[in-house]
Amino acid sequence: MTNQAKVAVVTGGAAGIGAAISRFLARDGADVAIWDRNIDLAQPLVDEIQALGRKVVVSQVDVSEQSDIQNAVAAAREQLGPISILVNNAGISPEKDFEDITVEDWDAVMNVNLKGTFMCTQAVIGDMTAAGWGRIINISSSSAQSGAKRMAHYAATKGGVIAFTKALALEVGPRGITVNNVPPSFVHTAGLDAVAERIPGGIDAFSSTIPMGRVGQPEDLAAAVAFLASEAAGYITGHTLSVNGGRYMA
After folding, report:
1. DSSP code for 240
2. In this model, does residue 201 exceed pLDDT 70?
């Protein structure tokens, strides 16, 4: 499959890590369907992608709602063509003491982070199967690798994403589809800035605990995803590609 024929879906693609991923995939020749709950953020990114000569479509999607996913898949196929790359990036990362996590809290994070990944993947994998080529990249988390205080529900979902990646890779490899996951650590986005006051000593102090001496940037994640989506990564599947500056070493 040529780059010009590729259509990428990026969930949570309007800002932060998702926006960087959308930008990198467009740079590499893919047309991009951006799915996000807040599509008002997407216009500057749409302008950038169009300036690269690529097509782009934006859909308002809550990945925990199957009807949203179905409508967005239809729009992507109609305006861009069959889907060949899926990046499951949308997620929520709540914090709460374990004893205070309610069943509703648990279900909410499971529905977005794990069930949403499952539903989005199932909705597009038929296109990849038909083409005999596909790339699925799931954004997991270093919290699933090392654990994270006050995030038992979040870490559980991301551990599920890693296991889902491996299981699906075994099943769809013979179809020419690779399935991999990228677990970030702290990444400098608006979301991190919003919780910076809860980090002892702030972002700079945390940076000193990372071997590379800094927190990640969205572009660090986007570069890894772009590689896994490329022809060069065609013999890599079921893999966990940690992008964390050395915070967790497997």
Report:
1. B
2. no
Can you point out the beta strands (E) in the chain? 7-11, 31-36, 56-60, 85-88, 134-139, 177-182
For residue 50, give its domain range.
3-187+219-233
User: Which residue, chain included where needed, has tokens 């709540």?
Assistant: 94
Least confident of 55-64, 140-149, 176-185, 203-212: 203-212
- The pLDDT value recorded for residue 1 is 58
Instruction: Establish if 212 belongs to a structural domain.
Output: no
145-183 exposure pattern, b = at least 16 Cβ within 10 A, e = fewer:
beebeebbbbbbbbbbbbebbeebbeebeeeebbbbbbb
Q: How far apart are CA 83 and CA 77, in angstroms?
A: 7
CA dihedral 217→219→43→127, nearest 10 degrees, is -130
Sign of the CA dihedral with 221 first, then 76, 49, and 58 last: negative
Q: Which is catalytic among the residues 154, 164, 186, 206?
A: 154
Cα torsion angle, 184, 185, 190, 195, sign: positive
Instruction: Please give the pLDDT value at position 192.
Output: 55
Name the H helices within 41-115: 43-51, 66-79, 103-110
> 171: domain CATH number?
3.40.50.720
- Classify burial at 200, counting beta carbons within 10 Å of its beta carbon; exposed 0-12, middle 13-18, buried 19 or more: exposed
How many Cβ atoms are within 10 Å of 205's Cβ, its own excluded? 10
pLDDT above 80 for 221: yes
Q: Is 154 among the catalytic positions?
A: yes
